[in-house]
UniProtKB/TrEMBL annotation:
Pfam families, per database record: AMP-binding
Recorded coiled-coil stretches: none
Family: Belongs to the ATP-dependent AMP-binding enzyme family.
GO terms for cellular component: endoplasmic reticulum; lipid droplet; plasma membrane
Protein name: AMP-dependent synthetase/ligase domain-containing protein
AMP-dependent synthetase/ligase domain: residues covered: 69-492
Record carries keyword Nucleotide-binding: yes
Superkingdom assignment: Eukaryota
Keywords, in A-Z order: ATP-binding, Ligase, Nucleotide-binding
Molecular function per GO: ATP binding; long-chain fatty acid-CoA ligase activity
Catalytic reactions on record: a long-chain fatty acid + ATP + CoA = a long-chain fatty acyl-CoA + AMP + diphosphate
InterPro entries: AMP-bd_C_sf, AMP-binding_CS, AMP-dep_synth/lig_dom, ANL_N_sf
Amino acid sequence: MGVKVGQQPVWRNVLYADHVTTDLPQCPDCNTLDKIFAKSCEQYPNNPCLGKRSITEVEVFGERKFEHFTLSDFEWLTYQEVKKKVDNFGAGLAALGMQKGKNISIYADTSDYWQMTSQACFARGFPVATVYASLGAEALEYGLAQTEVTHVVTDAALVPTIAQVVDKLDNLKYIIFTSDPRPAGQGGHKSDDEIAALITNKTEGVKAMSWDKVAEMGSDTVSQKYEGPNKEDNAVIMYTSGSTGNPKGVVLTHANIVAALGGMLRAVPNLNTSDVFIGYLPLAHILALSAENAILSVGACIGYGTPKTLTDKSPGINQKTTKGDAPTLAPTVMAAVPAIMDRIREGVMDAVAHQGSVTKKIFDRGYGVKQGNSFGSTFYDWLIFDGLRTKLLGGRLRMMLSGGGPLSEETQNFMNIAFCCPVGQGYGLTETCGAATIVWPNDGSYGRVGPPLSCCEVKLVPWEEAGYSPDDKPHPRGEILLGGAHIAKEYYMMPEKTAEDFRTEENGKRWFHTGDIGEVCADGVLKIIDRKKDLVKAAGGEYVSYGKIEPLLKDCPLVDNVVVYQDPSKAYCIALVTVAPKKDPPAPEEVVAAFAAIGKQKKLAKFEIPTKVHVCNEPWTPENGMTTAAMKVKRNDIVKKYKSEIQQIYT
């Protein structure tokens, strides 16, 4: 658990009370990311490293030309084979003019190519500027222009988006793309020449070529020596997906990420070469990037899937011919954001409800029996949950990591019971390499995010406006500050914002001001209770906390997503909601009544319960710009889109 350090409101991990860690436990001398990967390749050359499924057939249907895929089993590359590809591609980039210290952008969906590209860049000292694949042309242009990249690595499917901005970026010289994964002649497959033409037809100043061609080019010069990175060199410029305004580029050094990986590896129990991790979350998100590098550091393997093909019920799966990525791979370790786990729970509960009253009674009985024994084996595991685990995620899952937002008690309880494994809910931000705290596996409590990782110190400072103080009883409360070697270097080309959020005390200690409000429990475990930006003062003088209310209301079975809104001139709040796909939209009055029941159960104050609701007629997704890639709602964009509806509700 956590322990207080001295007289200051500062907490460390109880196992590392006298210091914070900065290194990797299994390789203290590996102080850069390329050294970590090289060490694994040296130790585990013949172990499976990266795997993926090939598309063998595409079925296109409907006016919007939806695609259903038939997929192969997982095909694997060993660490030795991956290392060869990484080295060749890095040499190919150098042959195309990339130099140490010069930024390169990856604008692509998660895949083995993304991971290999990043490893090649880490080895050569090319800082990787990440851009979410879900971002549109405007945000893409902003990120590429700010980082002044000359080379962009992307997917075939994203080349048309780059083509929209390629003639506006003076520094751009090369677009390197992965080939179309669909079989020739199926689903609108494009050849490499056709993909390249989308760029070269737009401008003569930018060349386009395939990833494999660059790697082939590099095989001729791969033996040439080059200077690798130092630990203080920039490794990643990670653009946040931006819930408000333009995304910020968070500069992470090799030392930052290595320290974070060391903290994570000391907290995740017994991660080893027999583990299998499923990669599907955006590698442009810090949770996925850190998790996958931690997996590779111990010689375990990563099998890549996609959100569209993850489960048997995913929209991209041809259910007549193919199983989903997760049940096919049967991972032992998985990372997920709360929105994905919410949907797993909702899908199971919906399926149970439609299988008849007898099945539902048996399920409810088994669920109730396991409430107090989530991880223990019972008769109902044999009867219900073993089959459920196998069908959904392959049946071997032993650890699930949750990050990117608060996980509701109901969903955490469901995942513990249904999958009989701990959910390691953590807390971290891009600015901390995703590392700050994580719940210990033997902690059965809910609503907490765990003690500090070994690399991290947690400090609380007062926020007088809302009445939070480290001197509060029974537990200290205040704004969360985080310190340690994993704290980001800066925001890219944003000195004022850097000075605002990253501050150095007189004693030389540097802290990142998160804007989150925390409470430290008696055992040193952190609980997130509020967020500065999520507090709005109502006309009656009370503070309405979006961060407190929305996770509770999202458990309402009538809705899929919720944004609470408080007009400062009004005495009551309202809500905008979306409905789960394939469900009939409820009447606003039904939702209001359901929210009132939840508010009573969760002991919300009257002013915290929305009294009016607008049911939106479309889902909020990364594709339509209403959520980030991590499925966090973009509050400002949603409020702006539904401005007239909000005004109408309040009048």
